Amino acid sequence: MDFLRRVSLDSVRLPNDECEGVPSTQTSSSICIFRATSTWKEIDKEAADFLDIFDSLRLDSALIAYVKSSRAGWYALRQMENGLYSFLLKDYMYMLAWTFDPDRMETRAIVCERSEYISRSILKGAGGQFDLPGLCTLHLYHPLALACIVLVDFVSYFDKLLVQEGYQVGGIEDITRHGFWGVDDGQEHEVPEAELIKASRKIARLIGLFANMFKSLEIAHAIAATLKEQDKWRDPLHVSTKVQSAKVHSAEVQDWREKCAISLTEATSILHGRIRAMKQSCQVFDARAKALSSVISTLMRREDTRITNELTKASNKLAAAAARDSSDMKVIAIMTMAFLPATFFAALFALPSLDWQSPGVMDNKFWVYWACTVPTTLAVFILWDVLQANKIKMLFQRWRNPEAVDNETTADQKHKEPQGIQKQDVEMGRGVRDERNRDLLGLAAVDGGLNCQASTFTVSNMAL
After folding, report:
1. CA separation (Å) from 445 to 89, 431, 442, 454?
2. Which residue from 209, 208, 94 is spatially nearest to 154, judged by alpha carbons?
3. How far is CA 242 from CA 30, 101, 234, 421, in A?
4. Which residues cross the membrane (predicted)?
């Protein structure tokens, strides 16, 4: 396990021990395993390393599934076979697992990063390594000492995070001029679409961040609830008979443990109040972020509507211009039609085949003009009709693949035939329905006659 750095703290002596005093016993010790170069995800990939860590910590086997899981949570239990306490904390920042041996007053712990987060955590030193500030000898006498330190870290970390992200929410409110920080000056302001897209990304990140914060604050609330259950952790010390002078030191150890419990209880009361306040602030910021999400969506839709209106106006202008062009083309066509007969006759009368000075006027070669003009005119109209109906393409396809064209023709016929058959079926069905209605009317008439006869017969019998 080269990626781990083991630090042994025996008879810890820190500056804040001066105000509490140092117990005279040598039974207190703490063994902490800190992460050196790897995150927990990388450590968890190697089964051998994972099992070695688990055995070194002496964790309860019931926690294996929770350690392997990617879910966050807080777990605290007591091992009945050896009297050890096992604890596991998993959050998106880091994982902390430890055991506490009440016989030896020994704590074994491992702490690993689960994500690369900003070093606002008080458990991270200046160089990025994990640290345990505030840990003193007194804390080694209580199994939940590390839980209290982590709770302080949670409160400190999320308090700073709420302030930072709250400014982000306020900045977006100022840009959109909607919300608590939005200044309404009574004027209409257009927000650029690029700013709206950027704000939308920020809001999506903030909503996800607040969701994670809710989850972490619930974990912090569970830790605080565990710390308040002091009666559960005040069981008689399981002092081993193998430890020499155990009876001599047990009273002193019990006294220091009670002092630690009182200290943790006082700290937990303050921290629990701060957790409730942060949950309320988180709810407020989350509501403001979700309201901004709706505002940004509305502004973007309004921007889309404005662009659509501009496109509609441009389309109307193009349509008006096209209409004017069409009118101009009609004028040109009318003028052409007006001058075309005159042009035709002028060209006709200017033909050399017509001699207006001679008695016959028309030359004997005048038929050549009509022999060329009429076929050419017909050829022009035929060519226009072929190009307009796309018949050349069909002829080319028939020449390339005649079977495909025949299949398309057959398919078109089959597509048209059911319509005709359906129409015939409708007509036949209508005729059958009319005939059935006539039969029913006839039966009704006969039935009515029989009923009348039966009534007459009954009346006659009654008369008799």
Report:
1. 91, 21, 5, 14
2. 94
3. 20, 14, 22, 103
4. 331-354, 366-387
